[in-house]
């Protein structure tokens, strides 16, 4: 795939509460700043207001403790975008069941029918659900609101245990930073692992790997490694092409294997062996994207061994073969 147009829904007619600014700023930060050295062209970002587009010098009414925003684009510009993102919906629409703007729901349905990829962050899932786009699908939202989402829209298979759900052309995320995970996941799907990881590094955030997601997921480790684990994990990442055991890592960390296992699982949410596999798959992804090395050499350098072993783990963890992954993200330089 490639970068395209990204339309973000902005409630200019009611103002944006201060506590919703974070979700709104995430897609603006990820998709709105050109990164010509990573991918050229970058995404085209459109902030599409609910209501009439505002003229220069005008702004919508500010919500309590919020801001009035002015946008160049309206809902008609949302309809022909490649990706549509609903960062959140007003609290009264979630807490009190107040109806969402009918013109927004109509525009979301039109965009989906036109082939747009539909995305929600946090409570934005309520808008996609109201439009019928989540019927029969697995979806998520902020854990504080998943029960309301499930009760109000019984046709939606709500999962409150994940950071985000990728269902192909419809994606939903939990609240706050989980929205950033999902946006970086979209970059990874569109432009590859190298671009997504470099972008995450520039933003000084980890490129998370939430469990149970679709193909082309990130396999990096969260930056919140427990104190004392960081050096040994960096040591292991520099030696992924070598045989490594839990005992090797524990010895390097000056811990017993049992203590190391417990500390790593608490810090990263995964076991030492799964952590090593994730790192090796991430190394293999980078090599497939950035080099023309034969598949068996990629397996050797990533520590996954033979081409057959590499292919086995790619199909199981990522969902495609190494060759298909390379074709999806060919070298650009």
What does it look like?
The protein is of the alpha/beta class and 333 residues long. The chain has 2 domains: 5-202, 3-Layer(aba) Sandwich (Rossmann fold), CATH 3.40.50; 219-333, Arc Repressor Mutant, subunit A, CATH 1.10.10. Helix content is 43%, strand content 11%. The chain has 15 helices and 10 strands. It has a 6-stranded mixed beta sheet with strand order 3-1-5-6-10-9, with helices on both faces. The chain has a two-stranded antiparallel sheet with strand order 2-4. A hairpin with a 3-residue loop joins strand 9 and strand 10 (170-173). Helix 12 packs antiparallel against helix 13 (295-302) and helix 13 crosses helix 14 (307-317). The longest helix has 19 residues, at 272-290. The protein is globular. The relative contact order is 0.09. Mean pLDDT is 83; it is low at 53-63 and 208-226. InterPro entries: Class_I_gatase-like, DJ-1/PfpI, Homeodomain-like_sf, HTH_AraC, HTH_AraC-typ_CS, INH-QAR. Keywords: DNA-binding, Transcription, Transcription regulation.
């Amino acid at each position: 795939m490639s970068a395209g147009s990204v339309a973000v829904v902005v409630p200019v007619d009611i103002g944006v509460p201060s506590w919703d600014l974070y979700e709104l700023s995430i897609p603006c930060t990820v998709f709105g700043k050109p990164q010509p050295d990573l991918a050229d062209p970058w995404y085209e970002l459109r902030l599409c207001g609910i209501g009439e587009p505002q003229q220069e010098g005008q702004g919508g009414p500010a919500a309590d403790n919020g801001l009035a925003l002015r946008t160049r684009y309206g809902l008609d510009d949302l309809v022909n975008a490649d990706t549509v993102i609903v960062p959140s919906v007003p609290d009264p629409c979630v807490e009190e069941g107040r109806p969402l703007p009918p013109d927004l729901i109509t525009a979301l349905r039109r965009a989906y029918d036109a082939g747009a990829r539909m995305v929600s962050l946090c409570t934005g899932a309520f808008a996609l659900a109201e439009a019928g786009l989540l019927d029969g699908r697995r979806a998520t939202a902020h854990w504080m609101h998943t029960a309301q989402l499930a009760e109000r829209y019984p046709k939606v298979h709500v999962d409150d245990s994940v950071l985000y759900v990728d269902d192909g052309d419809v994606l939903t995320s939990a609240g706050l930073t989980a929205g950033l995970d999902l946006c970086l996941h979209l970059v990874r799907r569109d432009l590859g692992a190298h671009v997504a990881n470099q972008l995450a590094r520039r933003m000084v955030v980890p490129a998370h790997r939430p469990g149970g997601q679709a193909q082309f997921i990130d396999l990096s480790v969260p930056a919140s490694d427990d104190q004392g684990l960081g050096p040994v994990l960096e040591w292991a990442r520099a030696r992924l092409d070598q045989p490594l055991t839990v005992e090797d890592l524990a010895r390097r960390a000056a811990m017993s294997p049992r203590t190391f296992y417990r500390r790593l699982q608490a810090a990263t949410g995964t076991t030492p062996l799964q952590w090593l596999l994730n790192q090796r798959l991430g190394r293999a992804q980078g090599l497939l994207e950035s080099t023309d090395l034969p598949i068996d050499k990629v397996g050797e350098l990533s520590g996954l061994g033979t081409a057959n072993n590499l292919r086995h783990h790619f199909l199981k963890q990522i969902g495609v073969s190494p060759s298909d992954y390379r074709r999806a993200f060919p070298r650009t330089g």
